[in-house]
Description:
The structure is a single chain. This protein has helices at 22-33, 60-65, 292-296, and strands spanning 2-3, 100-105, 114-115, 120-122, 125-129, 134-139, 145-150, 161-162, 165-169, 172-176, 181-185, 192-197, 207-209, 213-217, 223-227, 233-237, 245-246, 253-255, 258-262, 267-272, 278-283, 304-305, 309-313, 319-323, 329-333, 342-344, 347-351, 356-361, 367-372, 390-396, 399-404, 408-412, 419-424, 434-436, 439-443, 448-452. By secondary structure, the protein is mainly beta.
Amino acid sequence: MLLPSPTSRTASSGKPLRGLTLAALGALMLATTSCSVPEAILSGDRVNVLPEIVIETASPDALAEGAGLPEMVNLNSARMPGADSGHSGGNSKLQPPLSTSWSSKIGMGGTDLTELALPVVGDGRVYTVSPDGTVSAFDVKNGAAIWSTVIEDKGDDPLPGIGGGLALSPEGLVVHAGGQALSLLDAASGDLIWTVEMKIPLRGGPTIIGTDRVAVTDLDGNMKVHLLVSGEELWVHFGIAAGTVLFGAPAPAYANDEIALAGAGGEVSYFDAGNGELLWTDSVASLLPRTPIQNLGDVRAHPVHDGGLIFVIGQSGRIVAFSARNGLPVWERAIAGMEMPWLAGETLFVLSLDGRLYAIRREDGVIRWVTELDGAVPLDVVVPENPTRYFGPVVAGDRVHVVSQAGTVVSFDPDSGEEVERLSLGREVRTPPQVAAGRMFVMGHNGTLVAVE
């Protein structure tokens, strides 16, 4: 989603031609082209100065290795996107074949301009926030409502973008609804512990930093770190406000007491989590954008930090793996995306904007396999009309799963990319799935949480 700048300007094409009509110009052009002077042909090789479409292909050797997934883990909690503060994924327990277990209404649904926040899971409960400021907790086993509270009265006209964010911490549930209130709630009862009122609406996060801090970003690209126990602000990194931004919620990624932040213009920054010192910065913006969206360069997907590498994908056409130690790019691929990559063992699974699912070798970026999803954009089309949207991927039950906007969960073999199962949820989806406690939780765009097991 795009938010235009509050102001727009037009420019004149210059002074009008005087004494020279269009007809005269046409005659002059004809006269010029009909001259008998031979065309000068310069020697040398012709080089195409326009950017070409790069088609990433799979390596048979990398495919033969298999995905190298880690052992399946009975993960009882997914406290943030990608399960933890680094969004480092994994392979959670999920038993096929899949079927719908229960569904519960969370409150207000999404709109054409507002998408619903990813739920989080822990302590036998799944937590949600709706764009109107309602926060709810449900029993993971049957969907029974445990508690519900309102952290901010936003009415029925929320800001465009992602309608909030949640994270489970040792102190409780940290949550915002895409407004100006950041709150800490008692995870068991929903009681309010503290609220901090921001000057600018919140956008990304929250991300839990260690055991005692939390990081969030706002609409102007500022990142703030607060104490969990009190909400006190510890430090702030001031971003650069953009006139036009691609709306989303890229949450900071944390590991090794350092924070990776991706945001407007494709900028990637790396900080000391203790004092906010900037350690290095780079960009995933395209050097030769082909479309207006690519020209923005913004990052919508959460960065992934596994302790050694930081993976960042932008919609402008690049995914880059950076060394956490020095910020140098280790590898990159010409893939555009708006969904968080999922790291599982030796493979990074990536969903592209054009409707393809990639399995990429973690260490060097070699592609193991590419699978075209239903409605994938032809490779020679730069700007598609109404492309089919997909959300995810997640890895669970030794399979890779994505969800279509039409509400179909599609599962793939991680070693080959072959489809192995699909399940229709019967409702529109615009939020990635969450996996924990032996279940997959999918947020319907109408505000209905669906559990699949």
